[in-house]
Design goal:
Elements lengths: L9 E12 L4 E21 L7 E24 L2 E14 L8 H5 L9 E2 L6 E10 L20 E10 L3 E2 L25 E2 L3 E16 L5 E12 L29 H5 L4 H12 L10 E9 L1
Antiparallel strand pairs: 1-2, 2-3, 3-4, 4-5, 4-6, 6-7, 7-10, 8-9, 10-11, 11-12
């Protein structure tokens, strides 16, 4: 499938921004962006070739990504800093990968080009960052225990990340997804015409800096940061992939499909098959990672 006539893909970016200071500590920035992708590589079929038609690569695909971002920044005021942003984006094109059209050309159909949502088309994106840290020296205003500034250069940071679901292609026929060979599928609607549910994640981090000194004649200094990081603090079960026939992450539709009942009931132990199939089809890869806790040290010198 090599094609010596391929040209490099091109990407053109435009961005226009406007920033307004609201107060002495806060500002609002509004920016618009536009990206144009040209000459993207896509598989194609040369139908009139002699002696037989063949597949090759061509510079056939194109797409655009456009949207706006609203960002609010409350610079550190006392111990608090807050940043928030919302992005509205549209990513459309003729193909999300170099093999998007493979099923079409393998079926002997023409090299059709239809503009639709790309795999990473996420309409809404929201991010909120809240940071609370105590200062050091005369800027410290936290509690003092036993004449010690116990929370000097210590604090916590929380990030909330949310976004609407990315697209997927729904299909009418039920195929075996749990380790079985699947046949071709029939689209129900259009390519990437359905959406995954919203995803929300909260990450947190608690840390404290310690100033280190050593050496008698020549003092050497370093800073040690001890942190506890919590990823997905709420242990949210975000769905990142679903089965096209049902739109569910834990059911591909095979066990309840009328066309599969005869084959299932003919097995030696029908109930055991149903139980094991349900476990297999509930793929952990269909969900975001669970809560994770990390303890770490950072030494700066």
């Amino acid at each position: 499938m090599n094609n010596p006539n391929l040209k490099p893909s091109k990407t053109i970016d435009y961005e226009l921004g406007f920033q307004q200071k609201l107060t002495g500590y806060s500002s609002l920035k509004i920016s618009a962006f536009y990206r144009e992708m040209r000459d993207q590589i896509q598989v194609t079929r040369i139908a009139d070739a002699y002696p037989v038609p063949y597949l090759t690569w061509g510079n056939l695909d194109f797409g655009t990504v456009k949207g706006m971002t609203f960002a609010y920044d409350l610079r550190r005021m006392g111990n608090v800093r807050v940043r928030a942003s919302y992005t509205l984006a549209f990513a459309y094109g003729t193909g999300s990968s170099a093999t998007t059209a493979l099923a079409v050309v393998n079926a002997g159909l023409p090299n059709l080009k239809t503009i639709g949502p790309l795999n990473w088309d996420q309409r809404h994106q929201i991010q909120l960052t809240f940071d609370y840290h105590y200062g050091k020296g005369k800027d410290y205003d936290g509690p003092i225990w036993f004449d010690k500034k116990v929370f000097e250069e210590a604090g916590a940071n929380f990030v909330v990340i949310g976004g609407s679901g990315t697209p997927y292609s729904k299909h009418r026929d039920v195929t075996r997804a749990a380790g079985f060979t699947s046949g071709s599928t029939i689209l129900d609607g259009s390519i990437n015409g359905s959406r995954l549910p919203w995803q929300v994640r909260v990450d947190g981090r608690i840390d404290k800096y310690f100033n280190l000194e050593w050496g008698k004649e020549e003092k050497k200094r370093a800073s040690l940061n001890v942190y506890l990081q919590l990823l997905n603090v709420l242990n949210s079960l975000n769905i990142v992939s679903v089965y096209g026939a049902t739109g569910n992450s834990d059911d591909d539709g095979y066990l309840n499909d009328p066309g599969s009942q005869a084959g299932i009931t003919s097995l030696n132990d029908e109930q055991a098959f149903r139980d094991l199939y349900s476990i297999k089809v509930n793929n952990p890869g269909n969900y975001s990672l669970p809560r994770r806790i990390r303890l770490g040290l950072l030494l700066n010198f």
